Write the structure tokens for this entry.
Amino acid sequence: MSKKIRVLIVDDNQNFCTILNEHIKEQDDFEVVGIAHNGLKAVELIKETVPDIVVLDIIMPHLDGLGVLEEVGELGLIDKIKFIILSAVGQDNITRRAINLGATYYVIKPFDFDLFIDRLRQLSKSSKSKKDGEDISRLSISANVKEFTSIDARVTEVLHKIGVPPHIKGFQYIREAIQMVYEDSNCLNKVTKIIYPGIAEKFDTTASRVERAIRNAIEISINRGNPEYIEAYFGHTLTGKKTKLTNSEFIALVAEKLRMEDSRTS
């Protein structure tokens, strides 16, 4: 019996992890050795299991995907493992840095799961060799019919286009807040009692820090972001506003826009 391909799944989206895990477990030649929802847990599991392949999301709490690659590099394990980077948006500067840190390929969410597994199977049989400056390798596995439509990916793409820097803490916090309101609009009426404390618990911080980080992210996006996209996405609601947009208003606008897009496509 041939050796199974050992895979570690690392993504803070639990629904995504569950679906990918189920698909992989259906394959006789694969074995899921663990699932991590943050970068710190990922490094811990990588040290314990030394998998053949790590499916690694870029944006995660506590330690992001780039941080995981740096930690694994310091442990001397980077050449023993193939890292497949997941990203909701194709940001060349981030993906190029990931490749330079030791990642093998990157994949844009959402994607076809069956085709993704076929690519993992092909990668497990190929040698891992990369020279500095080599072109970024991308797996082209877009789905014609998307089995998994990630609201996480959609929110991330919107924030990226608006101009919220993905490396600041407020990016992760505001992404979580928008998803919470998208799934339950009643949360918007309890921002300080539900949204901020919920995010604070997930990221091991305080509600006041979450509020400040979101405020900072919004101000950066409005002052330095893409004005054309902001106006196209929000209309004059945002660009014509004289006073500062509150955290709640920004979150509500994005969540409502996503719902409207869903209603048009349903």
